[in-house]
Amino acid sequence: MTSFPKSAQHDVSRSLDLYDQAGELIPGWTQLISRRADQFAHGASPIYAQSSKGSRFIDVDENEYIDWNNAVSAIILGHADEVVDAAVKEQIDRGSLFSANSPLEIELAEELNDTIPSSQMVRYAKGGGDACAIAVRIARGTTGKDKILFCGYHGWHDWYQAANFGVDPESGEYPFAGIEPIGVPKALEGTVIPFVYGDLEMLDSLLDEHAGEVAAIMMEPARSELPPPGYLEAVKLLAADHGIVLIFDEVSCGWRIAVGGVQEAVGVTPDMTVVAKAMSNGYPMGAVVGSRDVMEPAKHMFISSSYWSDNIGLAASLTTIRELKRRESPRRFREIGEKLRSALNQAIEDSGLDGACTGLHTGPTVTLNTPEDVDPRKVSTLFIQEMARRGVHSYMSFKATLAHTDEDIRLTGEAAAEALQVVRSGLDQGNIDDLLTVNLKKEPFRRQVR
Ligand SMILES: Cc1ncc(COP(=O)(O)O)c(C=O)c1O
């Protein structure tokens, strides 16, 4: 029998045992750093799950949670969506990987062309980092230039992680505290250069400084807010003036705000776009799409891998995109995001704490302003701990799926109100350390921008 955790009896001991075991068998415990226990409240948050359905999952200790993490936003329709899973099961019965090619590759390319404004030609991958590496290869191959200017997070590959050679290890500015570019060839230093989102002057002067050497500007077109008016238009003009490829990485920001991504929502079309994660509702998939001019030269480049032809991701992606359209997803995401933001703001206001839930409706984020003498990590860890003990799983930011209901939002608001009361009393009494029953959460993941 599973049940929502009641704070007094909340037990994640099986998760903690498995995590200890993983530490002996898997270097770094998990496959994605954002899944490590130290990204949540290690000691209270669930670390291992046994099943998930809709907006909920059940951990290995039989606790049920409302899930606002959704596999770091890869789940968009809801866990184990019946329509997508039926398409996948049917495809499994017909073969997951053929010796010949699947017509699904063409069908999905047409669907992407109909959906993403910048899409005229398409290449596939199995994840976001993979797809970013393909986009960079194509941009370098098409322009004959090597350097990449970037803004945001673009995966684990050498081309991108080489940017960390420019980071002072003491500055604390690595994307994940304590994780360094070990194993990345030093020879790549200087080939990939960060710029600050929104700072056009900086981008302009970097383009002058590296004139004639830059293949592409790679950027996430939006983060927690919509881009400042005119910003993306100006970046596009700069790229065109310098004859370089503009790539939007919509791996995280795509699909929810509009099915065609941020570019559809704001009306600015790049030369190339990278998509992954939510495009297939939990099945491995990624794609690079772009204009014919930029993409076509890729036929002469070595971009090739056995499982990029896998039928499961293709079938899952086709069905997910069609379902997003059929279920009027942008309207529903706005509704869910706005209701959730106001429930969390109400909880913050009732607690009397200084803070707010802000940001785009696609990822409302709770910020709590702490007194100067209190470590903000203690406050965020305590909040996540208390939310976990009440059956809500999230970071400080929340990603919805179409499966989230008004009842999920109501329960989340109730849990937040109680959790924030605990935070408030810890601050008032000066006993946050006594209330924390877990290890302190690591700094949140930082998108490298400088
Ligand atoms: C913007 C962006 N690009 C690329 C990636 C890498 O994707 P993946 O983890 O599927 O390799 C991520 C993952 O979080 C991302 O947010």
Give short descriptive properties of this protein.
alpha/beta, Aspartate Aminotransferase, domain 2, binds pyridoxal-5'-phosphate, 2 domains
Describe, in short, the structure shown.
The chain is α/β, with parallel strands linked by helices and 450 residues long. Helix content is 38%, strand content 12%. The strands form three sheets. A seven-stranded mixed beta sheet has the order 4-10-9-8-7-5-6, sandwiched between helices. Strands 1-2-3-13 form a four-stranded mixed beta sheet. It has a two-stranded antiparallel sheet with strand order 11-12.
Tell me about this structure:
The protein is α/β, with parallel strands linked by helices. It contains 15 helices and 13 strands. It has helices spanning 13-25, 70-73, 82-94, 104-115, 128-143, 158-161, 200-209, 231-241, 262-266, 292-295, 311-326, 329-351, 376-389, 406-429, 432-435; strands at 49-53, 56-59, 64-67, 121-125, 147-151, 192-194, 214-219, 245-249, 272-275, 286-290, 355-358, 365-368, 392-393. The longest helix has 24 residues, at 406-429. The termini are far apart. The model has no long low-confidence stretch (mean pLDDT 94). Bound molecules: pyridoxal-5'-phosphate. Pyridoxal-5'-phosphate binds at residues 127-129, 132, 152-155, 220, 249, 251-252, 276-277.
